[in-house]
Amino acid sequence: MDSGLFLKTITLRNFATFENQDIKFHPNFNGIIGETGSGKSLILDAFQLLLGARSDKKLIRKDTECAIVEGVFKVNNSNIRKFFDQEGFPIDEDNEVVIKRILYQNGKSKAFLNHMNCPLSSLTNFSKTFVDLVGQFENQKLGNAEYQLYLVDQFANNVKSLQGYQKIFEEYQKLIQDSLVLELQISEKQQREDYLKFQLKELQGLSPSVEREEELIALKSRLLNKEEHSKVLSDIQDAVCNGDSNALDHLKYIEKTLNNAHGLFESKFIEDFSNLISSFEDFAYEVSRKEVSADEEFQLDTILEELDRYQKLKRKFNIGTAELSNLKKQFEDELSGLEKLEAQLTTLKKKLSSFEDQLYTLANELHENRRRESAKMSKLITNGLDQLNMAGASFKIDIRKTQTLTKNGLTSLSFMAETNPGEGFYKIKDIASGGELSRILLCLRQIVAAEDSISIFFFDEIDTGIGGETAQMIAKALKKVSQKSQVLAITHLAQIAKAVDEIIFVDKKSFESENNVRTISFVENKKGDARERVINQLAGL
Q1: Where residue 338 falls among pLDDT bands split at 50, 70, 90?
Q2: H helices of 207-320, where?
Q3: Which of 19, 183, 310, 534 fits a 20 to 30 Å CA distance from 519?
Q4: How far apart (Å, rounded) are the C-alpha atoms in residues 241 and 245?
């Protein structure tokens, strides 16, 4: 099998009628078989939980606290490993992806991907990329225009070209948003300029700085204590040099006495004392010169006014002094930027025009390739439907060129079918039955499987309402799909069961204990004679 990933096992614990069950799957074609009500659809429910479906406490087995569903997927492809690395859930060396869901009776649930807690979005990203559910409700996906375009691009080998286009389109969209912002700013330019100039007038008049505010606070403190400063200075001057009994006079008297007391002290000691007096005289001179400025009262009013402006601005903008300076620079830069808006918009529009030219060129190339390949694809699907016993049915892709660029280019298309010759073509979602949609999707899968990222297909009762030769044709088609991707199919037909690589037989039994009857579903992988007996039973033999 060429599939990069396949489901290896599903483990069910206390899941509905399953008590304790391990289900093993073949890498290629698996047929899930059993009587109505045996539990086949529960396997689909479990699989959907692994793919991120919402939990339902009704699936928890009666009288148990929780249900556990665990799936193990084998990986054979480096690109798939890279996908999980980018998602943040790297694969271990055993090359296995492990998904676990735990459902609780209180309605809560937990999800684990590669043994780590994960959001359900991670599981849905995985399922959208690598898994396709094909059933009565999932077939509605085929009617989605974006999904149809995706299939055409897969067939036309447009994936890389589309990715290149979308990368430029994303940048183009961002440029459009930037231009809208610029245009809005220009429309509000005059009002904003007036506001900025008004705010800057206050800020620039002050030129705020932490150092200046600290200096003002210090000056304020000194000036407010002027009287005390004057008294202290006078006392110091009296004590040092001006008073009747000052320190300088006492020191000079001592020096004189020392000089007259011959031999009492060493000459070195007397010399040191004389140097001390010399230094003290310098100190006394500086003290005697010191005085309180005469205009300090006038300065105090100026200082208090400037400090008051600091407080008002800090309250106004609700920031500290340090941020006032930054805000001033911010306003100045914005004002300067407003003067350049028109030039910026002109440059941006030139860039937009260049991007638009590139996008139209690429989008036209994509559209032309889609148009050519759609015609080929339509013929192949029409032939495939004939082989699936939809004789006379025709398929075509209605493709049109739009005028407006989108993330997918300039293409609008719709899958059309004529299921009855001569009755006209209609959109497949409006005319085809569930069985017909399944067969159309089967044809598509055979055609685009080589380029598709889908690794696992789960077909839910694709054989509803068919039999005989049609069943054989569908079996062959499923077999062909299973050569590229793993196929899981819930079926009631012997023709399909005969084509599968692994028959997964689902059955249930009732047990009575302590006057209580309980039902348990179980699974067996049928091989050899047991496999033939199951197929014969389906065939009514």
Answers
A1: low
A2: 210-224, 226-237, 247-260, 267-289, 296-317
A3: 534
A4: 8
Strands 456-460 and 131-134 come out as: parallel
Please check the confidence at residue 137 and state whether its pLDDT lies above 50: no
> Is residue 34 a contact partner of residue 57, using CB atoms and an 8 Å limit?
no
Segment 380-409 mean pLDDT: 87
The DSSP element (H or E) to which 199 belongs, if any, is helix 189-206
In this prediction, residue 18 carries a pLDDT of 93
pLDDT value of position 130: 85
Predicted pLDDT at 368: 95
Residue 294: burial class (beta carbons within 10 Å; 0-12, 13-18, 19+) = exposed
Structure tokens at 135: 């059933």
Q: In this structure, which amino acid lies at residue 153?
A: D
The continuous run of DSSP H or E covering 358 comes out as helix 341-387
- Which pLDDT does position 451 carry in this prediction? 54
Burial code of 60-86, b = ≥16 C-beta within 10 A, e = fewer? Answer: bbeeeebbbbbbbbbbebeebbebbee
For 423-463, the pLDDT digits (tens) are 788 888 776 666 677 777 778 777 775 556 678 888 876 76
Instruction: Write out pLDDT tens, residues 10-34.
Output: 999 999 999 999 999 999 999 999 8
Which residues, including other chains, have CB under 8 Å from residue 96's CB and lie 6 or more apart? 8, 72, 73, 74, 75
CA dist 449 → 122, 159, 323, 456, 462 (Å): 24, 14, 62, 11, 18
Query: How is the beta sheet containing 426-427 ordered, strand by strand?
Result: 394-406, 409-418, 426-427
The pLDDT tens digits for 103-125 are 999 889 999 999 999 999 999 88
Retrieve residue 502's tokens: 């692994």
* Structural tokens at position 540: 């009514």
Average pLDDT in the 354-380 region? 94
Integer Cα distance of 486 and 493 in angstroms: 19
Report d(CA 472, CA 350) in Å as an integer: 61
Helices marked H in 10-67 — which ranges?
40-50
- State both tokens at 60: 């928890």
Domains and CATH numbers, the chain: 1-135+461-541 (3.40.50.300)
Helix axes 189-206, 321-338, angle to 10 degrees: 140
Closest listed residue to residue 428, CA positions, set 132, 134, 140, 135:
140
Phi, psi of 531 (to 5 degrees): -65, -45
**From CA 387, how far away is CA 177, in angstroms rounded?**
51
pLDDT classification of 259: cutoffs 50, 70, 90: confident
Question: How many CB atoms lie under 10 A from the CB of residue 203?
Answer: 19
- For the segment 367-393, the average pLDDT, to the nearest whole number, is 87
User: Residues near 277 by Cβ (< 8 Å), separated by ≥ 6?
Assistant: 248, 251, 252, 255
